[in-house]
Amino acid sequence: MGRATLADIKEKDFGELVKETKTNTEDKNKVSNSNKNRNTTSDRRGKKSRRQHRKMMMPAAVVVSPVQRLFDTCKDVFALSGTGIVPTPDKIEQLRAVLDEIQPADVGLTPHMPFFSPPVIRQAPPITYLHIHECEKFSMGIFCLPPSGVLPLHNHPGMTVFSKLLFGTMHIKSYDWVVNVPSNASTAVDSSQTVQHPEVRLAKVKVDSDFTSPCNTSILYPADGGNMHCFTAVTACAVLDVLGPPYSDPEGRHCTYYYDYPFTKFSVDGATVPEEEKDKHAWLQEREKPEDLTVVGALYTGPEIVEN
Ligand SMILES: [Fe+2]
C-alpha cells in the first residue's frame, strides 16, 4: 500500500490512519525480512520518513488549563443552581477533585505578590479579591490575605461553597445554626449585666483549626458544614472560593456579618446544652459590616477562561 500524503491525512479520520500505519508497518517488515542484511542510505531515509509520517498522524493533544477545567466543571455542577439547591454528591466530588489539583501558579499567583506583604502599620491589613468569574449560577474568585488578615464571621445563605487553600496557613472557625432550640431574642439575658440582649441565635462550632496548604478543599452547605465562617491568616495565604449560587441581594442572598459570644454569656429560657458541650456552642449576633474590614478588588492575571 502506498504511503499517505498530507492531503490523504486531512481526508481520513484517525482510525483509518492507524489502520494504514499498521499495514505500512507490516509491509515494511516483509521488505525488511527479505533484505535482512541490507542497510542502505535509502533504507535510513525511509525510516526517517516513516517516523515523520507517524508523527503527522498523531492527533494534536487538546490542552485545557486547570482554571478552564474548573470553570467547565462549575458550569456542569451548578447547572441547576439556586437558593438552597445543593449539587448531587457525585457532582460535589467532581468539583472537589478538580479543586484539589489546582496550584497557585494555575491561577497566576505567587506568595511574593504585593498584596501578601505584611502590614506596615498595626491595623487590619486590607484583603485583596481577585475576581475570576461570576454568573447567576456560580462565582469564582480568590481572597489574598497578608499575615494577620481577617475575613470576619459571615454567612452564605442557601449556598454551597468550596474553599481551596492555595498556599499558606489559615485559621478557620465556622458554625452551623442549632435548630429546635429557643433563640428568642427577647429572652436573651447577658448573665454579667442582667440586661436583655437583642438578636442572638445559638450556633454550634463546626471547625476551629489551623489549615496549612496543601490540604483538602473544604465545603460548606446551606444548613451544615460550617455555613458561617471566619478566616484568619496565620501566614500570608490565598483561598480560592467557588460559590453556587453567588451572593445576590435581589434574590435574598445577602452577606451578613456576626459577633460570636460564648454560650455562657447569655441565658435564654429553654436553651440548654450539656456542660461538656458548652464550649462548642456560641451565640451569634448580627452586626454591620466591620468598619476595619477592607476588601479591595484587583485584576485576575491568571490564564484566561473561555466561556463557551
Ligand atoms: Fe465565606
Automatic annotation (TrEMBL):
<dbReference type="Pfam" id="PF07847">
    <property type="entry name" value="PCO_ADO"/>
</dbReference>
<protein>
    <recommendedName>
        <fullName>cysteine dioxygenase</fullName>
        <ecNumber>1.13.11.20</ecNumber>
    </recommendedName>
</protein>
<feature type="compositionally biased region" description="Basic residues">
    <location>
        <begin position="45"/>
        <end position="56"/>
    </location>
</feature>
<feature type="compositionally biased region" description="Basic and acidic residues">
    <location>
        <begin position="20"/>
        <end position="30"/>
    </location>
</feature>
<comment type="similarity">
    <text>Belongs to the cysteine dioxygenase family.</text>
</comment>
<feature type="region of interest" description="Disordered">
    <location>
        <begin position="20"/>
        <end position="57"/>
    </location>
</feature>
<feature type="compositionally biased region" description="Low complexity">
    <location>
        <begin position="31"/>
        <end position="40"/>
    </location>
</feature>
<keyword id="KW-0479">Metal-binding</keyword>
<dbReference type="GO" id="GO:0046872">
    <property type="term" value="F:metal ion binding"/>
</dbReference>
<dbReference type="GO" id="GO:0070483">
    <property type="term" value="P:detection of hypoxia"/>
</dbReference>
<dbReference type="InterPro" id="IPR014710">
    <property type="entry name" value="RmlC-like_jellyroll"/>
</dbReference>
<dbReference type="InterPro" id="IPR011051">
    <property type="entry name" value="RmlC_Cupin_sf"/>
</dbReference>
<dbReference type="InterPro" id="IPR012864">
    <property type="entry name" value="PCO/ADO"/>
</dbReference>
<keyword id="KW-0408">Iron</keyword>
<dbReference type="GO" id="GO:0017172">
    <property type="term" value="F:cysteine dioxygenase activity"/>
</dbReference>
<keyword id="KW-0560">Oxidoreductase</keyword>
